[in-house]
Design goal:
Blueprint (H helix, E strand, L loop, with lengths): L2 H8 L2 H4 L12 H10 L5 E3 L2 H9 L5 E8 L5 E5 L15 E4 L4 H12 L10 E4 L1 H9 L5 E4 L3 H6 L3 E6 L9 E6 H6 L1 H20 L2 H8 L8 H13 L11 H13 L9 H4 L6
Parallel strand pairs: 4-5, 4-6
Antiparallel strand pairs: 1-8, 2-8, 3-6, 3-7
Helix pairs in contact: 1-9, 5-12, 10-11
């Protein structure tokens, strides 16, 4: 689902817009934020949950998001066999594997459950595990459903699983954008403006390209993924509108994420759009 960033990198768009980008893997979302704060990194991409979470705890936090890339939730709820007319309330009595790698998909799914009248805290079948293990557990009959992203989902479909619910269908949810600290944004504004422009060009290229063309560009980054699964993943995300829109982060997308985070107990209040988003690059 990070395709817009990969397109901007692999098509040389960052460099073309005057942004000298050198990529390093932080290791964890927490580590990325810490590297921004200690000055060892200038820019990161991550969920807008990070600045929002930090600013809910400390209104002096300098973290700000900008340059929206993915404003719909990429996670997919899968089960064995088709389930026409699936209703979220059905999960109340099921064993469900939830990703342990990151908190956001569970925060958001909990809000979907609450909206359907289900109390997530009262669900006895929730099991946290890495997505790969969740896929194996579904195939082994150890869970009834699994929440994961592509290309896990397309690989599971080949083995008899089916999509029950695409979280993207709930509507805008702020899922991934660029972010940095305010002093660095001021210091490197021209370069960051170029990075946002490159991201916008990447989104335009994705919108104008076929799934086959996009999958071909991504293939070297997913050498361990079967080409058929990668193509199916791109087709699904393109159809779900995961990469549509501009680099302006919609207020409704951030608000939906905030509601989910507050409901899950991750933060006590929404610090506000203007507090978390730097709009100078819109």
């Amino acid at each position: 689902f990070y395709t817009p960033y990969y397109v901007a990198l692999d098509r040389g768009l960052f460099a073309a817009h005057g942004a000298d980008i050198r990529i390093e893997t932080a290791g964890t979302p927490d580590a990325a934020a810490l590297r921004l704060l200690d000055g060892s990194a200038d820019l990161a991409w991550s969920g807008p949950m990070r600045p929002m979470l930090e600013r809910s705890r400390n209104d002096a936090s300098p973290l700000r998001s900008f340059g929206a890339a993915i404003m719909r939730d990429p996670f997919l709820l899968m089960g064995m066999g088709a389930r026409p007319g699936f209703a979220m309330a059905e999960l109340a009595s099921m064993r469900v594997a939830i990703p342990s790698e990151v908190p956001t998909p569970w925060w958001c799914l909990q809000q979907d459950l609450r909206d359907a009248g289900v109390d997530p805290a009262a669900m006895p079948g929730i099991r946290f595990m890495p997505m790969g293990d969740g896929a194996k557990a579904l195939l082994a009959g150890e869970v009834d459903a699994v929440l994961l992203f592509e290309p896990f989902a397309s690989a599971l479909e080949e083995q008899g699983a089916a999509l029950w619910y695409a979280a993207a269908s709930r509507g805008p949810t702020a899922y991934s954008a660029l972010y940095a600290i305010t002093p660095r944004i001021a210091e490197k504004e021209a370069a960051f403006r170029g990075a946002v422009a490159a991201l916008g060009e990447a989104l335009d290229w994705i919108a104008a390209s076929t799934p086959e063309t996009i999958a071909e560009l991504l293939a070297p980054r997913f050498a361990d993924t079967q080409p058929a699964h990668l193509l199916a993943a791109v087709r699904r995300y393109k159809a779900l509108g995961l990469w549509e829109g501009t680099t302006r982060l919609p207020e409704a997308a951030l608000d939906r994420l905030a509601v989910s985070m507050i409901g899950a107990g991750a933060m006590s209040h929404h610090p506000g759009y203007a507090s978390c988003i730097d709009s100078r690059f819109d």
